[in-house]
């Protein structure tokens, strides 16, 4: 922990003033970002100041960034962030000593720079792996400088202070591992034979990466992770639980097809295949690209495809209904004009299910009552093409 307990006290410190010059960001903007990162990671009081001091001190960890089977979207999302401070901050916080996309050097020169950085920072450098690693047929499907990806990742990890997998490809195989996985595309953790911190997403959110790196820089260790290696601060909640459309899900208001009235009204995208109910990530709360509210897939009207989740993203058909992890919804909902006394509200059915103490029993009861409600509705209701409730 740094010597300053309060982040406000840092506003006039020399280190933060120098950083203002270096990055071209206002001190306040920088300190706000540190406070936001500390809060997002659920760190205790004073951690924001410690993080700000660590970044401002310019003691930058050496980073070696490897690219294998992927689209380079992870790197692009860091660099093409709408807000200029983000990529500046990332590149200032770390000393990027080897990165195939951003390097001016090429060929033997680039490989020599990697070896030099590994030697000079032995045991201390941060290894970032982007992209899956093909292991089939002795790894021949991906080679850099004549070395297979498998050998390169093992060689670089041997002397690293820490290894982080960025993106779904490096975290669990991602897109290259789908469709029968012809190259044996595997995660960095699988190749190294251990759980390593993973920042999945295709692409992942740059803030989650930045927060992870700043944590490493400040506290000398990576943040707490779940059993899949994902930092808990970013991947412990279902998207569904923080989604701005959740009230529509609970009320049974769904978009049934792209462009219909429900879709235009911002109803829930579950019936279009939204995988938010089975995907753990902080997309709805942290958003993308610093462009303001709704800048995440569901916010823009597209169902979540579960890109952070192994076995969901690029595996399940896009329009297949998501598995509901925390509640079992009915297949249909009562309309508001059902015969009095014949229907049952979702809320009261849920309460009954809770009293019965069994979700399965509850949903069976719900289905039975909803069946009765729809029978009543069919007798009395005019066909309403506008309503997206079903
Ligand atoms: Fe692409 Fe990265 Fe997707 Fe993969 O992100 S955005 S294919 S997760 O490894 O470059
Ligand atoms: Fe949001 Fe998707 Fe859940 Fe609907 S199903 S509330 S759109 S996350
Ligand atoms: Fe990916 Fe779904 Fe977030 S598609 S970016 S996990 S909303």
TrEMBL record:
EC number: 1.12.99.6
A GO MF term: ferredoxin hydrogenase activity
Superkingdom of the organism of origin: Bacteria
Gene3D superfamilies in the record: Cytochrome-c3 hydrogenase, C-terminal domain (4.10.480.10), NADH:ubiquinone oxidoreductase-like, 20kDa subunit (3.40.50.700)
UniProt keyword Isomerase present: no
Catalytic reaction annotation: H2 + A = AH2
Annotated ranges, domain Cytochrome-c3 hydrogenase C-terminal: 235-313
Cofactor (UniProt): [4Fe-4S] cluster; [3Fe-4S] cluster
Entry similarity comment: Belongs to the [NiFe]/[NiFeSe] hydrogenase small subunit family.
InterPro entries, per database record: Cytochrome-c3_hydrogenase_C, NADH_UbQ_OxRdtase-like_20kDa, NiFe-Hase_small_C_sf, NiFe_Hase_small_N_sf, NiFe_hydrogenase_ssu, TAT_signal, TAT_signal_bac_arc
Key words, A-Z: 3Fe-4S, 4Fe-4S, Iron, Iron-sulfur, Metal-binding, Oxidoreductase, Signal
Keyword flag Iron-sulfur: yes
Protein's UniProt name: hydrogenase (acceptor)
Lineage start: Bacteria, Pseudomonadati, Pseudomonadota, Betaproteobacteria, Nitrosomonadales
Residue ranges annotated for the NADH:ubiquinone oxidoreductase-like 20kDa subunit domain, each copy included: 71-215
């Amino acid at each position: 922990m740094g010597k300053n307990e309060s982040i406000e006290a840092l506003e006039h410190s020399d280190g933060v003033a120098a950083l203002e010059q270096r990055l071209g960001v206002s001190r306040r903007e920088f300190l706000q970002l540190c406070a936001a990162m500390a809060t997002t990671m659920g760190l205790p009081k004073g951690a924001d100041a410690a993080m700000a001091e660590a970044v401002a001190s310019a003691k930058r960890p050496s980073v070696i960034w490897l690219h294998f089977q992927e689209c380079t979207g992870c790197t692009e999302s860091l660099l093409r962030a709408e807000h200029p401070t983000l990529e500046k901050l990332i590149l200032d916080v770390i000393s990027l000593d080897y990165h195939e996309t951003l390097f001016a050097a090429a060929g033997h020169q680039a490989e020599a720079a990697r070896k030099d950085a590994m030697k000079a920072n032995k045991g201390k450098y941060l290894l970032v792996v982007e992209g899956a690693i093909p292991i089939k047929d002795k790894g021949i499907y991906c080679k850099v400088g004549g070395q297979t990806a498998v050998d390169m990742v093992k060689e670089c990890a041997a002397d690293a202070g820490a290894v982080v997998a960025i993106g779904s490809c490096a975290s669990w195989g991602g897109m290259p591992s789908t469709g029968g996985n012809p190259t044996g595309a595997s995660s960095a953790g699988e190749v190294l034979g251990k759980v390593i911190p993973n920042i999945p997403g295709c692409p992942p959110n740059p803030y989650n990466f930045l927060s992870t790196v700043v944590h490493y820089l400040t506290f000398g260790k990576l943040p707490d992770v779940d059993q899949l290696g994902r930092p808990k601060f970013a991947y412990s909640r279902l998207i569904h639980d923080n989604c701005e459309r959740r009230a529509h899900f609970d009320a049974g208001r769904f978009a049934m097809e792209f462009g219909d009235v429900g879709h235009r009204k911002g109803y829930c995208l579950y019936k279009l295949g939204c995988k938010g109910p089975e995907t753990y990530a902080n997309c709805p709360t942290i958003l993308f690209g610093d462009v303001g509210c709704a800048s995440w897939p569901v916010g823009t009207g597209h169902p979540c495809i579960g890109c952070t989740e192994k076995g969901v993203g690029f595996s399940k058909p896009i329009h297949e209904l998501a598995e509901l992890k925390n509640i079992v919804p009915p297949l249909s909902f009562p309309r508001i004009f059902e015969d009095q006394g014949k229907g049952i509200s979702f809320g009261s059915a849920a309460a009954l299910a809770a009293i019965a103490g069994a979700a399965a029993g509850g949903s069976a009861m719900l289905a039975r009552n909803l069946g009765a409600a729809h029978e009543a509705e069919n007798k009395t209701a005019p066909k309403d093409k506008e309503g997206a409730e079903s």
